[in-house]
From TrEMBL, chain B:
HAMAP family on file: Pescadillo
Biological role stated in the UniProt entry: Component of the PeBoW complex, which is required for maturation of 28S and 5.8S ribosomal RNAs and formation of the 60S ribosome.
Pfam families linked: BRCT_2, Pescadillo_N
InterPro entries: BRCT_dom, BRCT_dom_sf, PES
GO BP terms in the entry: maturation of 5.8S rRNA from tricistronic rRNA transcript (SSU-rRNA, 5.8S rRNA, LSU-rRNA); maturation of LSU-rRNA from tricistronic rRNA transcript (SSU-rRNA, 5.8S rRNA, LSU-rRNA)
Subcellular localization: Nucleus, Nucleolus; Nucleus, Nucleoplasm
Protein family membership: Belongs to the pescadillo family.
Name of the protein: Pescadillo homolog
Compositionally biased tracts (Acidic residues): 447-477
Organism: Acanthochromis polyacanthus
Any one of the GO CC terms: nucleoplasm
Length: 462, 572
């Protein structure tokens, strides 16, 4: 209490100290009877000393600082007082104007009350956060920077930068070429057949690591057909053909067409309804009574069959053991037969001696026949080489001949109408040369059934 | 007795073949991928000799491959790439489904691709092998380059095909190796001789595409993929064999400004495709010396013949040298420019048609103006106005044909196929005979038709004529004798006069021929019976051919006469 009082005394005793609040009566401080307490204990000291006056003073100081930004006693007179010379006229006008302006602008220009309440009204600046200004290891870093500056002045490049400088630039193009598509229009080519690259590494190593190309079988280099890649159209296919060659081509096309038609007709004939198969009254009746009449006959036949079977079974059962005599006779007969056959053979062979000429002739004939067969087979094989083979489910269907009729022929190149499609021609050529198998276009298979439903609106009309 | 039981279909043919489906499973590929792999690697299905044995007793038609081929396929690194691609597609689909666009982009960037270079090297170990197989590649590339960009195939493929075909055409122009051209109703057939190989290819007409539905585009695209790679490498090699730059550059190319590079590159490409400028060389053409054949001392005659032939060929290659052509806008520009430039001519067209025109219509030095319309308004006196067929026919005939038959409005002579080679005794159309006569250097007169007929006869019975001449001489002698007899019978005294003897001029060539004929006759007489039989057969065949040819000629004549009569009627 004494300390507080002392403090107050100090503050009040200072010259020019102004308090904002009206000072209380000093008699208040010492009101009532003094309570006698031993203040030799810290607890008592804390409990019974009166510090209100100090707190008030401090509060007052804080209040002053908050509202005016400093102690009033330290302020200059100019900032505290001004000379009152009455209200200036302009101010009035201004006020009117401002009123008008307010009216014009309305409420929007006035700040909200809540904002005003929340506004920071203290003039004491907020305390600085020291930690936000502090830098850890500032000293060390400063030293490092200084050293770097020194080195830079000398012209020494730090190691890290040196490494960066020494690093090779990333080859962007290399990556691009690795991912370059096959059909890139600007792709590059090189001399493929120029120099034979020699295998430098150990062949065993290359083979084991799968780095060596496997040798292509020789047989694969043979072409599957002897036909040329491009078969030139017959001379009749010229845009302005010679009369006879054009006629020849037309004839060829005509023959093909006739053949096709014949086949179609044949098929139709085979599929046509046969008049004999037509149901007449008689056949209908016969069909209806099938199995009802003539039962007796069948029964008899069946009975006969049964009897025969019985007999057969009986024969097996009845077979007896042969007697010794019978066996002997049989053996003798067998030997005799063999003898007879051998004799016959011998005589035949002897007779052949006289037939030598005819035998020779027959041999020659046979040889000739085999030779001619051989030639035929060879020729057939040769012809087969240029024929399309059967490589799949479908047979090769040759393309329709491209032909322009005499009245379709254009007199000049300008009016020429191209016939057929080259794409199809190439495709068929590939098939003809057995490079690909003839194939149908894959059919579209619907996985789920389509259900047709009439809309209600449509139903109502119909 | 004893030993293991032999089971069916465990040895022999059944183990040499594998069905397509089993092969596919063995390679763990889907059917389209398997097909692609087979096409790229050049492995084709095979028809077994005994189907039933191979098919384990069944006769159902199946596609078979040789087991060894499939085993060979197992080593192919591309198979792995196919699998990667499959996975890539799956991931991409997933990313699309989840609308993860960044993932889509990343996947797209790392799209797995593969190269076919090693396959080409493997399938064509030497350059000449590749050149032998280039026909197909050319056809396919020319075909794909004319496709519309409608999504039937990748636009990039079309562009690549276009680039490669332009390069090829420029090579043919630079090497002057075109031999034959045939304009058919399908497309234009060209034949060139490159490094001793005859290469034929077919070029479709522009804008003539209906897309047939029964063609598998995927298969065709795979073939094209392979062939573009092949053609590119072949082009590279060919260009370098001529000391040309590859990728090709046009002579007098403008200097590249860095900012405009891409545009200029595009322009150069356009210029190349215009086919009007010559290509830049690694070594300038002036320095290049023409290689002469080594002289061998023996066989002088052969050497001379060869030299003569070579000179002739050289002349043919420079057929259009010095001629200046102008193409009207209705003629097929690319084809004509290609053909004309192949034979050394200069060619230009209207500026509005295409880039690369070198001179204008008004140029006074133009010698030939190619027109394909019935009449033209403004005509210059100092140039020929001809129809495009003249150029093609000249190329096939290997000489400059008379232009009269090809003027505007004239009915053209038929365009004959240069790919038909007539054997002795075959029917030869009169137009071709005329051309042959021109080639021999004879000049058919004004009255062409008679000439034709004569020639036909000449050709058909060349030997007979010789006989005729002999007969004529004999007849002349007989006539003399007859006159004398007549005079005698009339009672006049014979005008006996001794005239100085004339030395009978003996034609050595003729004598030689006679000798030869005699020898031949004797040889025929001395033949064995068997050989004689064969000989007779051959001769009979020849005669039959001649007879047929005569028949055709008669038919033609009848046709021509009928036409003429018709024309006359029409004129009246």
């Amino acid at each position: 209490m004494a300390a507080a009082r002392r403090l107050k005394r100090v503050a009040v005793s200072q010259p020019g100290f102004l308090t904002l609040k009206p000072s209380r009566d000093p008699s208040d401080l010492v009101s009532g009877r003094r309570k006698r307490v031993n203040k030799n204990k810290k607890k008592n000291w804390n409990k019974h000393s009166d510090i209100n006056d100090v707190e008030e003073f401090l509060e007052d100081v804080r209040h002053q600082e908050r509202t005016t930004g400093g102690l009033l006693s330290e302020k200059s007179d100019d900032s505290l007082f001004f000379l009152d010379v009455g209200q200036p006229k302009k101010a009035e006008q201004k006020a009117e104007e401002s009123v008008e302006g307010k009216k014009r602008k309305g409420k929007a220009s006035r700040p909200l009350r809540i904002d005003l309440i929340l506004q920071h009204d203290s003039l004491v600046p907020p305390a600085k956060d020291v930690l936000s200004y502090q830098q850890p290891n500032a000293k060390k870093l400063r030293r490092i920077a200084q050293k770097a500056e020194q080195l830079a002045a000398k012209g020494v490049v730090p190691r890290r930068q040196r490494q960066l400088l020494n690093r090779r630039p990333v080859d962007r193009t290399a990556k691009k070429s690795a991912t370059e598509a096959n059909n890139n229009p600007d792709r590059e080519y090189y001399d493929m057949w120029g120099q034979e690259s020699k295998e430098s590494a150990d062949p065993w190593y290359l083979q084991q690591t799968g780095k060596r190309q496997v040798k292509r079988p020789e047989k694969l280099n043979e072409k599957p057909s002897v036909l040329p890649a491009v078969e030139v159209i017959a001379p009749g296919g010229s845009y302005n053909p010679d009369f006879l060659s054009h006629q020849a081509l037309l004839q060829e096309a005509h023959d093909v067409e006739v053949k096709k038609q014949k086949q179609e007709e044949k098929l139709e004939r085979q599929l046509a309804f046969n008049k004999e198969d037509k149901a007449t009254e008689e056949t209908v009746l016969r069909e209806q009574v099938e199995g009802l009449v003539e039962e007796e006959n069948e029964d008899e036949e069946a009975a006969a069959d049964d009897e025969e079977e019985d007999v057969a079974v009986g024969a097996i059962a009845l077979s007896e053991k042969k007697t010794e005599r019978q066996r002997k006779r049989e053996r003798a007969e067998k030997i005799k037969e063999q003898q007879r056959l051998a004799d016959r053979k011998q005589t035949d062979q002897q007779q052949q001696l006289f037939q030598l000429r005819s035998i020779k002739a027959s041999i020659r004939q046979r040889e000739q026949k085999t030779k001619s067969n051989q030639i035929k087979r060879k020729a057939k094989q040769e012809a087969q080489k240029s024929q399309p083979r059967r490589l799949g489910k479908l047979k090769f269907q040759p393309q329709d001949l491209e032909v322009q009729l005499s009245n379709e022929l254009a007199g000049s190149l300008r009016r020429l109408k191209p016939e057929g499609s080259i794409l199809k021609d190439r495709f068929k050529s590939l098939q003809k040369r057995n490079l690909i198998e003839p194939r149908d276009r894959a059919k579209f298979k619907r996985r789920l059934k389509v259900k047709y439903v009439e809309k209600r609106a449509f139903k109502e009309i119909t | 007795m004893g030993g293991l039981q032999k089971k069916k279909f465990e040895r022999g043919a059944a183990t040499n073949y594998i069905t397509r489906n089993r092969a596919r499973k063995k390679l763990m590929l889907s059917l389209p991928d398997f097909r692609r792999l087979c096409i790229l690697k050049g492995i084709y299905p095979h028809e077994p000799k005994h189907k039933k044995k191979v098919n384990k007793g069944s006769t159902a038609p199946r596609t078979f491959y040789l087991m060894k081929d499939i085993r060979f396929l197992l080593h192919e690194p591309i198979v792995g790439k196919f699998r990667e691609y499959k996975i890539f597609v799956r991931k991409l689909k997933k990313a699309y489904g989840k609308t993860e666009w960044s993932t889509v982009e990343r996947l797209r960037e790392n799209k797995p691709t593969y190269k076919l270079d090693h396959i080409i090297k493997e399938r064509y170990p030497s350059f000449i092998d590749a050149l032998r197989d280039i026909d197909d590649a050319l056809c396919m590339c020319f075909l794909f380059s004319t496709f519309a960009r409608t999504g039937k195939c990748h636009v990039q493929t079309i562009q690549l095909c276009r680039r490669l075909t332009v390069e090829w055409m420029n090579y043919v122009i630079a090497s002057r190796s075109l031999r034959k051209v045939f304009i058919s109703i399908k497309g234009i057939y060209y034949q060139a001789e490159v490094m001793g190989q005859l290469i034929t290819w077919l070029v479709p007409y522009q804008f003539s595409h209906d897309h047939p539905t029964d063609v598998d585009y995927r298969v065709m695209a795979t073939f094209t993929e392979f062939y573009t790679t092949l053609l590119g490498f072949v082009n590279f090699r060919l260009y370098h064999s001529l000391n040309l730059l590859y990728p090709p550059k046009v002579c007098r190319a403008p200097k590249l400004i860095p900012g405009l590079q891409s545009i200029l590159l595009f322009l150069i490409e356009q210029k190349l495709s215009a086919l009007s400028a010559s290509l830049a060389r690694v070594v300038s053409s002036a320095e290049e010396e023409e290689a002469e054949l080594d002289q061998f001392p023996e066989d002088m005659e052969k050497m001379e013949a060869r030299e003569k032939e070579q000179k002739q060929q050289e002349a043919q290659r420079k057929m259009f040298q010095g001629l200046k052509f102008f193409l009207n806008r209705e003629v097929p520009r690319e084809s004509l420019a290609f053909v004309i430039r192949c034979f050394g001519g200069e060619v230009s067209w209207d500026k509005s048609i295409c880039i690369g025109s070198t001179y204008d219509v008004t140029d006074e030095t133009i010698t030939h103006h190619i027109v394909d319309r019935p009449n033209i308004d403004k005509q210059y006196i100092n140039r020929y106005y001809i129809q495009p067929q003249w150029v093609y026919d000249c190329v096939n005939a290997k000489i400059l044909l008379p232009v009269e038959d090809y003027f505007i409005g004239v009915t053209l002579p038929p365009h004959l196929s240069p790919f038909v080679e007539e054997k002795e005794g075959d029917y030869v159309p009169p137009e071709k005979l005329k051309i042959m006569a021109l080639q021999r250097g004879e000049n058919p007169g004004v009255n062409e038709e008679e000439e034709e007929d004569e020639e036909e006869e000449e050709d058909d019975n060349a030997d007979e004529e010789e006989d005729d001449e002999e007969e004529e001489e004999e007849e002349a002698e007989e006539k003399n004798l007859k006159e004398m007899e007549d005079q005698r019978s009339q009672g006049k005294s014979l005008q006996v006069k001794v005239t100085p003897g004339k030395v009978k001029v003996e034609n050595p060539a003729r004598l030689e021929q006679e000798e030869k004929a005699e020898e031949k006759r004797l040889a025929i007489m001395m033949m064995k019976k068997k050989e004689k039989y064969l000989y007779d057969k051959i001769m009979f065949g020849k005669k039959r051919k001649v007879r047929e040819a005569n028949k055709l000629a008669a038919k033609r004549k009848a046709h021509d006469d009928a036409e003429k009569a018709k024309k006359k009627k029409a004129r009246k």
